[in-house]
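protien #1 (seq + structre)
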Amino acid sequence: MPQCQMSKEYALDIGHIDGRGIARPSAVIDFMQDLATRHAGEMGLSEKVMENNGFWVLSRLKYRLNRPLHSYETVRLTTWPRQIKGASWYRDFTFEAEDGVIGSAVTMWAIVNAETHRLLRPKALGISFEDQIVGEPEMLKAIHAEHLQPCFDRVVRYSDIDVNHHLNNVKAVDILSDAFGLEDDETRWVSQMQVNYLSETTCGTTLTLARGTGADDALCVAALDGERENVQAEVVFSEL
């Protein structure tokens, strides 16, 4: 494993699970985001970002799980910063439970100036480290959805907003998940999911959720503000 890493255990409680007693996709992403934030702080990176009037932005993520996470189960996440690619910061994860390693994930982050909203390159802020590449690392690409068809509208409200007064990353995944159709087919669960955060979404915005297809006929869901896709996901299901 890499030299610079951090691990933490997370217990799935009643607020993380769906009606079948397994973790919602948003719970998985909540754990990933929390651990990444904690590790960046421990590394002293968050302080450097704040000194330069910047803030972290999660731009893309992808996870794969071999099996669902169950209610009141404890899962151990480990994360490490993989490498800096231009303005993008890649961070990798593993998931472990009592039965061993059950999944992996990758996230891509950027640093944005709080006033201008321009990207800040990490190396320009004095942030650098040796690459920590394990196995065959995945690069997160754009999601190309075809034949998007509107499903329903959803207004972004108070409980959806983060400290930057934008749609919270985890809440965005809950909103996208409502378009997966899992309430009509409880035999499936989300074993793989990629999310791309494309544009900021503010309180009061009416999002149109739409479904389409992506690579290898995977399900694609997008949340649109007018004709602009603000956040999108590509999902692979497995049978329970």
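ok now protien #2
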Amino acid sequence: MKLIPTTPTAKAPRERFTGDVYLNTLHNGQAPSRLVAAMVRFTPGARTNWHSHPLGQTLHCTDGTGIVATRDGTVIVMRPGDTVHTPPGEEHWHGGTRDSMMCHLALVEHDNGESATWLEPVTDQDYETAHTQTRR
């Protein structure tokens, strides 16, 4: 057993996120582990680009209110204590709502060194449409 040192907070790269998003890496598994865990904080209106994960992703909301949306129009509102799983290959995005920050734990596994396929930014129109289609 060991205590893992806290990592510095890093601003998320603009080529993968819209708005102000901050990351803290919690775990970056070394073989045989494939687990990658991060705490991600989104300011109001901030969000990821569209993306998918080869082995899926689990998100656990710790604070605030957020949205997770998929290409087929499914939209889930995340609140503290909620957990959302996206299956392997499902294109999706997630972020804070218009008026709330959101913090979640993001859990993924590496597949041959890859944990995500990053795609285009979520348009403002797609972001606003998600707000009108929210369901629990």
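The longest strand covers residues 21-28.
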